[in-house]
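Trying the structure run again after the queue cleared.
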Amino acid sequence: MATNATNADDVPDAYEALLDRARRWNSVSSAAGVLSWDQQVMMPEGGTPARSRQLSTLSSLEHELVTADETGELLDELEDVDLTDEQAAVVREISREYERANAVPQELVEEISEASTEALQAWEEAKAEDDFDTFAPHLQKHVELKREYAEAIDPDRDPYEVLFEDYEPCLPLDQAESILEELRETLVPMIADIRESDADLAVDTFEGHFDEETQEELSREVLDVIGYDFDRGRLDVSSHPFTSGNQFDCRVTTRFDESDPLGAFLSTVHEFGHAQYNLGLPAEEYGTPLGESRDLSVHESQSRLWENHVGRSRAFWELLLPTFQEYFPSTEDATVEDAYEAVNQVYEDNLIRVEADELTYHLHIVVRFEIERELIAGELDVEDVPEAWNDKYEEYLGIRPENDAEGCLQDIHWAHGNFGYFPTYSLGSVMAAQLYEAAEEDIDDLEGKIAAGDFDDLHEWLADNVHQHGSRYETNELVKGATGEDFSADAFVDYVDEKYGELYDL
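Done. Tokens:
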């Protein structure tokens, strides 16, 4: 998928004017992102009232820029202009953003922003105190506001479908549901077989006490090894790991559990994948769709590729284990195979999505997907969320949370009002398998290079096939161009069949 540069003399004035407007509203959005990062990482607890107004104001300013008459007039002027493929892609993306934003009243945008800022603090308190009632009014407000938001955009469609398009505008919801259904049909019996298996994995390899300070030092070294550019980023701690930024400044966070060093390791590698995507976007296109990532499923494919296909691989543990043992001598007797088995074990009793194994993770997603669909449809009351959550965990995973902190309060997404976000996690995992399979075909001895600490070829492959394109291609076209195949669950199913069949003697 080669890109074709545009001669400056061939660029219509209206196109340049439209780009200038897009750069302006994206700068406002980027500034809001820094304030949101600060709120979750460094802001003192008392800062919420001011931060709420700051973020609301920036959200309002961005909305004004996007929906201004001038934006619509420029799009109208370009409608019949002969554009290059790149220019047409930019206009397509800006037009989609304009039409969607223009349908939503500015007052509603401000109200959603304020509600999100207030809900975030309430969620933090509710989770710390294991008190769902503290968060429930904020969740109820988000549900109502997002129904209103979806109705403003398209009153004739399923509101959840409209909300899903905020995160994945290029994949039809029915395609996403078809892929999720194939995952469910594949993984439920596989997980049942694994739980019946007599395989004796070295699951206790990383049991013990691993102090937080040393884990952070190790996390920084791991980021160095796999190629994180600390000149354009930083590592911090937050209650929920996340990545924030752009091609010039992209920051990652993780969290530490002194009884589980794998949690921080995998979270750090996961967030690195997100950051590497942002940092690999074309610098000269900053603020335009060609310098922006292609939505959440593609973004998640980058983090899950690094977390699962690199971080959980034998090759990577050949590289990492000696360093890990230097930081934590208590693991000096562990072998590479021990580490590989431990990091790929399938848990029987895991309640936390971000700590889940590679297979049961998708059932965590199904629970959230079903609950938020029922909430938006009015089929489930907010006050009944904890019981519905616990019932679904018991049905799908055979375990029941003992409290809401490890149940329905564990994720930050609903505090932001992000309904429709969760499916992209599983879609991204599926896409990661398809991309990695293609990379293995194109890169000679990729596993050997990983074991030797040489990630250059993988970085280059991802940059060439994903990062450099920004939002030029829609999701299905991007995947087809990178892999030669339509986006499907086939590669993921083959991958887990082979990997876990070997691990558990299936």
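The mean pLDDT is 95. Worth checking whether this holds up in the mutant runs.
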